[in-house]
Amino acid sequence: MGRFDGGEVIAVSSNETYSFTKPNRESITLLAGLGVEGDVHAGVTVKHRSRVAKDPTQPNLRQVHLMHDELFAEVAEQGHDVAPGDLGENVTTTGIDLLALPAGTLLHLGEGGAVVEVTGLRNPCLQIDHFQDGLLKRVVGRDENGAVVRKGGIMSVVRTGGVVRPGDAIRVVLPAGPHVALEAV
């Protein structure tokens, strides 16, 4: 199991229009059952264009995208310059092994009462290579057994709304076992 204590929000980002990157903000407001206030991906049903095209009535399990800043250091070693918000995440974290969290984990973000429930892994798409050529293979790879490994952060839904700011502590509440590993959503 990964590290689940001592996490912190280092940046928050949102964008009201469809764009791969999201500008950093002083704060974001999470709205229960919807996502980030004013963000193009907020809503009860799917908002990602490819998913809307398939079935616009699907529930939105991708209301808030969280990414670990440790990934930025990893890809920097391979020549990629990536900063918070560049990969479209809403909340950039440090100190928590997001990818190892089980489905249903609750993340309490800061003192404002915001709580998100982890729904799954982000499934990185080709847009990442449009942002920086060759980056996709750095965030999606294969393990020694040939299984796909997705490193592009996690997705969540908002259970309790509240304001989230850089510097906010993150408290992790694991679900009652047995734990279910995250899959792409």
Overview of this protein structure:
There is one protein chain. The protein is mostly beta strands and 185 residues long. 12% of the residues lie in helices and 31% in strands. The chain starts with 6 loop residues before the first strand and ends in a 12-residue tail after the last strand. The chain has a single domain, classed as M1 Pyruvate Kinase, Domain 3 (Beta Barrel), CATH 2.40.33. A 7-stranded mixed barrel has the order 1-6-5-11-8-7-13. It has a 3-stranded antiparallel sheet with strand order 4-3-12, with no helix packed on it. Strands 9-10 form a two-stranded antiparallel sheet. This is MOSC domain-containing protein. InterPro entries: MoCF_Sase_C, MOSC_domain, Pyrv_Knase-like_insert_dom_sf.
List keywords for this structure.
single chain, 185 residues, mainly beta, M1 Pyruvate Kinase, Domain 3, seven-stranded mixed beta barrel, three-stranded antiparallel β-sheet, 12% helix, MOSC domain-containing protein
